[in-house]
Specification:
Radius of gyration: 18 Å
Strand content: 15-25%
Number of strands: 14
Strand order of the largest sheet: 3-14-13-10-9-8-7-4
Mean pLDDT: 95
Shape: globular
Bound molecules: flavin mononucleotide
Low-confidence stretches: none
Order of helices and strands: EEEHHEEEHEHEHEHEEEHEHEHH
Number of helices: 10
CATH architecture: Alpha-Beta Barrel
CATH superfamily: Aldolase class I
Length: 292
């Protein structure tokens, strides 16, 4: 068992928000999925206060060893999530972590209060990769701005509060420290790295409907490992490490860098059962190395 913020998890492998649709998977695989659910906890896709359509297409671009997405966080909004998705997600055989994002502290507070009221939800993840409308920088890019946001939210919930840090910042350890000082219970990283996909017609125009996108997959793993290690050295909080994890060995590298849990994202698009395989491989890795 793995302990994380008061939860007892069967193993240390969870999913990255937005990369595994548990409701669609149940539709595809039926009740068989409940007996073989690939993750030890389920992190749902980011929800916002109001419904969002997401970005215009194209939304995906393949790079060497990675992909750039500009999905743009389409979601049913808070009310739609609570009414339609939560009853389905509450039936999963693992604890549910709900991921929320707002563009102001007030929006985030409203989301957190609504989520806090639902006992089906075990923990809250705060996605702070939302641009500040004034500066254009991610809300989570600046330690002072992030600290103020977490301080506003913290008193509104007794549930574990995980802050999902943005990697698009000068010093991620400094931002993690601000989250810890403001009362976060855990941090998760990395979210996608901002990236540009040029149009294949050679014009230099953006290919993605959103202009820029977020890069993920094997190509970001080395960056993610460096950021996870820097954060784990700086804060005492548990860390969920992710970025390009595709095998048990990769998961072990994140644990060695100081993570308590490891999340699988892009690899689940290639193989929806990747989480279970990676957890199995990690168990074998740990057994071989004397369970360090
Ligand atoms: C298609 C796609 C959608 C994503 N949607 C979200 C999301 O809704 N909320 C969020 O916090 N992160 C989202 N992410 C980021 C992932 O959870 C993860 O942090 C990132 O992709 C790095 O892990 P990976 O390289 O294993 O994919 C998304 C990533 C991808 C590729």
């Amino acid at each position: 068992m793995t302990a994380f913020c008061g939860l007892q998890l069967a193993h240390p492998v969870v999913n990255g928000s937005g990369t595994f649709d548990a409701i669609a998977a149940r539709r595809a695989f039926g009740p068989a999925l409940d007996g073989a659910f690939p993750f030890a906890a389920y992190v749902s896709k980011t929800i916002t206060l109001e419904p969002r359509e997401g970005n215009p297409p194209p939304r995906l671009y393949e790079t060497p060893g990675g992909m750039i997405n500009s999905i743009g966080l389409p979601n049913k909004g808070l009310a739609g999530y609570l009414e339609h998705d939560l009853p389905e997600l509450a039936r999963l055989p693992v604890p549910l972590i709900t991921n929320v994002m707002g563009s102001t502290a007030d929006e985030v507070v409203r989301l957190v209060e609504a989520v806090d009221a639902r006992r089906e939800i075990a923990a809250i993840e705060l996605n702070v990769s939302c641009p500040n409308v004034k500066t254009g920088l991610d809300l989570g890019a600046d330690p002072a701005e992030l600290g103020a946001l977490v301080r506003a939210v913290r008193p509104r919930t007794a549930k574990p509060l995980i802050v999902k840090l943005t990697p698009n910042t000068a010093d991620v350890a400094l931002v993690a420290q601000a989250a810890e000082d403001a009362g976060a219970d855990a941090v998760s990283l990395i979210n996608t790295l901002r990236a540009f996909a040029p149009h294949p017609d050679g014009s230099g125009a953006p290919w993605l409907g959103g202009g820029t996108g977020g890069m993920s997959g094997p190509a970001v793993r080395a960056v993610a490992l460096a950021q996870v290690a820097a954060v784990a050295r700086r804060v005492a909080l548990p860390v969920i490490g992710m970025g390009g994890v595709a095998s048990g060995r990769h998961a072990r590298q994140f644990l060695d860098a100081g993570a308590t849990l490891v999340a699988v994202g892009t690899e689940s698009f290639r193989d929806p059962a990747a989480g279970a395989r990676i957890a199995r491989e990690l168990g074998a890795e740990s057994a071989n190395s004397g369970n360090r």
